[in-house]
Design brief:
The protein is of the alpha/beta class and 594 residues long. It contains 19 helices and 25 strands. The structure holds 6-O-phosphono-alpha-D-glucopyranose (G6P).
Length: 594
């Protein structure tokens, strides 16, 4: 999703620094980009459809500038084009924006009646014109920003330059992420903390409906009513973010390979000194709702299985985009768990805001520290998987499952004295070796990738926890390869979709659950009888070119081992199809609009 970068740098390096920041924001997913900078007392704007490398070709990065703002745009209102790219300038105001101005059509009519004309089809240009309109009333930027916040509906993180004020940038925030970082000679404004982590140690966070005036020597914070706000300067604690691919061709492969460490570090941290026992006691609650989007939702499905089947705690899992408009039945005995890698996903965040009006307790399972969701929940557990740059999540997703497994174990240790906790702990302690084993089978994954490419139809099938994992495998394949695939609960196939199965179909199936092993086998026989070929991920029997055998482990570990081959198969399929692996078309890492 859109990324924002702004800089005040007294050494004339603002253009270079903004471009570097935009490169670090590329992982969020975008289709056009631009920059505006102050030089010779004038604001110059350069923008383009396409990548930051295309933008670099249009700019002389040696130009000295102390103030610059930049943007990567993920199209919402209007196609990806140079005209629709940010920054936008109307009158005396130039700005970049992340979010959606919901009442932009109504505002556009008013502004047209006042004589404004528009070049783009974006809601952002309307926001820009609205601020200019209020600014022209008495050339008071403070009043203009306050009037804008009063009039506009929707979400926004805005970074703004005013033609008449040559030493300041202004930032405005509601429901979209924005952070201000500081070091000795530079102030940074960005959409997320990782983007500025290599540049500074201290930062400020704006709350919703706040704005700030920033010069090289001073930052003043205001409420939407114009009252000055006192803000605490904070220091980054987690230096675990990197932007290097190391020896790998893609961030996605690097992140898949890192799972042996991310998982073992996370798990060992909690096992050491029995820290997992300090985790929130899920069995205290009469109702548990898990709310998330995308892969985080799939992790939630695994969590439901673990909570219910292992710890006997009934659990519901919801897509955030559905939960946010659904009636809830929450009270003081309810726990709502929000799972999110970025901690910024708009729908998940909106659900959190909604349940804050109830008596339910909120728990976040989040990767990015100090992200909006991690700050707003009652309690947070960090997944500690470090920076995840590839749009398609891998290591953050398996760490989410690991946290859900630790929560389950914590409850069992406290309430089910007959459970063999030591056996699970021993398995967990060995996760590094198990993960390494499944990572090592690359030649087989490559040959399966070729079979996928040769097939006309791809189906993912599984029951129960295998179904949850196959849904993630199906999503990974769609994200990275742009191939069409379907995922069904194996028992549901005969209620319709089996009509699609024929000799051109490749079925990728998971079968690791002892209780359902034979049931799934029967479903697979049904598709074989109709000519389909099968790729099986199982924990029984002998491996061959079509059968991946993962170590036989409890359901605390097994789903993690089952998904890793699917991550690698999607990866190699995408590589063979020459897809843009780390930045697949149309996708964004952090979905900050509804
Ligand atoms: C986007 C990403 C997915 C991710 C989902 C939820 O769609 O492309 O990979 O699973 O958002 O993101 P979150 O940051 O909340 O986990």
């Amino acid at each position: 999703m859109c990324g924002i970068m702004g800089i005040i740098n007294k050494k004339g390096m603002a253009i270079k620094k903004v471009i570097e920041g935009l490169e670090r924001l590329e992982y969020r997913g975008y289709d056009s980009c631009g920059i505006a900078y102050l030089t010779n007392n004038k604001i110059e704007t350069v923008k383009t459809k396409g990548r930051v490398k295309d933008l670099k070709e249009l700019i002389d990065t040696d130009i000295k500038s102390d103030i610059a703002i930049g943007h990567t745009r993920w199209a919402t209102h209007g196609v990806a084009s140079t005209i629709n790219a940010h920054p936008h300038t109307v009158g005396d105001i130039t700005l970049v924006h992340n979010g959606i101005i919901e009442n932009y059509l109504e505002l556009k009519e008013i502004l047209i009646s006042k004589g404004y004309q528009f070049k783009s089809t974006t809601d952002t240009e309307i926001a820009c014109a609205l601020i200019d309109f209020y600014y022209q009333e008495n050339k008071d930027i403070k009043k203009a920003i306050i009037s804008f916040m009063d009039k506009v509906k929707g979400s926004y993180a805005i970074v703004l330059l005013c033609k008449d004020i040559k030493d300041k940038i202004f930032v405005i925030k509601k429901d979209s992420p924005l952070v201000i970082g500081v070091n000795t000679d530079t102030v940074f404004v960005a959409s997320d903390i990782p983007t500025i982590l290599s540049e500074c140690n201290d930062y400020y966070l704006l709350n919703d409906l706040e704005w700030a005036s920033i010069s090289s020597s001073e930052i003043t914070f205001y409420s939407n009513k114009g009252e000055e706000q006192v803000k605490e300067r904070q220091t980054f604690k987690d230096g675990n973010f990197t932007y290097s691919k190391d020896k790998y061709d893609h961030f996605m492969l690097k992140e898949i390979m890192e799972q042996q460490d991310t998982l073992s570090n996370l798990i060992n941290y909690y096992i050491e000194d029995n820290k997992y026992l300090d985790l929130i006691d899920i069995s205290k609650y009469k109702r548990i709702d898990i709310v998330a989007c995308g892969s985080a939702y799939h992790a939630g499905l695994v969590g439901k299985y673990l909570f219910e089947e292992e710890a006997n705690i009934e659990t519901q899992v919801y897509l955030a985009s559905e939960y946010r408009y659904k009636k809830n039945f929450l009270d003081e005995n309810s726990l709502v768990i929000f799972i999110s890698q970025s901690g910024e996903t708009a729908d998940t965040l909106a659900c959190l805001k909604k349940i804050k009006e109830t008596k339910a307790k909120s728990l976040g399972i989040i990767n990015v520290e100090n992200s909006s969701i991690s700050i707003a929940v009652d309690e947070v557990i960090y997944t500690k998987s470090g920076s995840e740059i590839a749009v398609a999540t891998t290591k953050a997703y398996t760490s989410q499952i690991a946290v859900l497994a630790l929560l389950t174990l914590s409850s069992l240790a406290k309430h089910n004295k007959s459970y063999d906790i030591d056996k699970i702990i021993n398995e967990l302690k060995n996760i590094k070796d198990d993960v390494k084993k499944v990572l090592d089978d690359k030649d087989k994954y490559k040959s399966i990738a070729k079979k996928i490419i040769a097939s006309k139809k791809i189906f993912f099938l599984g029951r129960s926890i295998d179904y949850a994992i196959m849904r993630e495998g199906d999503l990974k394949l769609k994200e990275i390869t742009y191939l069409s695939s379907e995922c069904y609960a194996a028992g549901e196939l005969k209620h319709g979709p089996i009509s699609l199965i024929d000799k051109d179909t490749l079925v990728i199936a998971g079968n690791t659950n002892k209780i359902l092993y034979e049931k799934t086998e029967s479903n697979l026989s049904e598709v074989v009888a109709r000519g389909a070929n099968i790729i099986l991920v199982t924990n029984k029997g002998k491996a061959n070119s079509n059968t991946i055998v993962i170590p036989e482990r409890s359901s605390f570990i097994s789903p993690i081992l089952e998904v890793i081959p699917l991550q690698l198969i999607s990866y190699y399929t995408g590589v063979f199809l020459e897809r843009d692996i780390d930045k697949p078309r149309n996708l964004a890492k952090s979905v900050t609009v509804e």
